[in-house]
Amino acid sequence: MEFVSDLFDGSSFNNELGGSHQTNRQLKSLDHDIAHLTKLRSGPQENLSRVLPGKREFLISTLKMMAGREANLSGRGRFSSGDCRHVLSKYLPVNGPSVVDRMLTKVHVSQFSADGSLFLAASLGRQIKIYDVERGWKVQKNILASCVRLTITDTTLSPDQRHLVYSCMSPVVNIVDVGSSTKESLANVTEVHEGLDFSSPDEGGHFFGVRSLKFSMDGQEFVAGSTEGNIYVYDLEAKKVSIRVSAHVSDVNTVCFAEESGHLIYSGSDDNLCKVWDRRCVRAEGGPAGVLMGHIGVVTFIDSRGDGRYFISNSADHSIKLWDIRKMSSNSTCYRGYTNYEWEYRWMDYPQQARDLKHQCDYSVATYKGHLVLRSLTRCYFSPEYSTGHKYIYTGSHDSFVYIYDLVSGAQVAKLKYHKSTVRDCSWHPNYPMLVSSSWDGELVKWEHPGSGEPTLPANNKRLRR
Q1: Which of 25, 147, 275, 456 is the most exposed place for a label (fewest CB within 10 A)?
Q2: Residue 29 has what DSSP assignment?
């Protein structure tokens, strides 16, 4: 199912809100498990949403929710987690923005820590800054990385916020002690940045670079993807690579663990494919648990919903796709032979003849369009579970905007305008309606919900009632 957002031209407002009649009509045909799960997690309790016998409101105002709680309509005397998310998810982080910092070069990576107390930003070259969010965004640690080639390609912060791992275009990644007292962390001068070598004697000295990193949810290991098409899992306690898999025929741009157990890993590559790996059988069988086809451009990023079933991917075909791994294929024989052009997203414009092209074996659940992915490995994410129940998808864009889509309807609910260049990364605070975007213009800016206290709602959607 494909959603196309063309609601705004971005010419008149710093941030824009809206809804589409077209996408909301399509909502009726998206009868999928994830649509029902999202409604359950981000919707109000049934008695709170009932206005007439047998009839429920699509959206309830905060005032009505509070009145229902005081009247104990739910029978619990308090809001459920779904009630809380229903209220919080209406307050989108679209106000502002305010400038957090201006860095000297392009910002490539920017992320909140798992609890939202820290924020890290990595720029083109060797600089990584870690900010203390709860102390007025003061710089807690200023890191000058040990990069022998090019620039920092990725960073990942452990869930307990003790360790930061960063990669450059090299087979060696480095780990830094985030909690140390050293504020100015100059690699191996003022502080040791331990090098973790991913090369193997079997590779005959072949040079490669690590492109992507992600910690496991327990912080005991992290997964990495390389330019030679390999996936690695590094065990921090054993201090060695525990798994090495030849995963793709081209660069692995993105990797992540699927869920808390760490058994499943998702990967995306320059070969346009997303793959699912089961660590419990990868040594014996060698191949992936499954392949997911549908993109006709490079896969730039993958974000897991954290349930071991659903994930989203961003691609240089200017789309985000939602996947259910229960629909994966055992092979990728269908994915080639349907294009008659060649292009390189890093320096070429997207081919005109490909704009309406669809993959003949598209296994995705839904497709979201409106943003642009060019020149960079642009990232996309689910909105936080705690405050929104993963109700939204958000992404940066080559056109300098941040886009927010409704997961179920596909509507573009917000388009944030401020930056003057590509927005490669952005991060939504895990607990509050706050989003920080980072751009190639060097700026980190913070978006929050409107200060008037009024929730942000799709302006053109007449089906919604308050």
Answers
A1: 25
A2: G
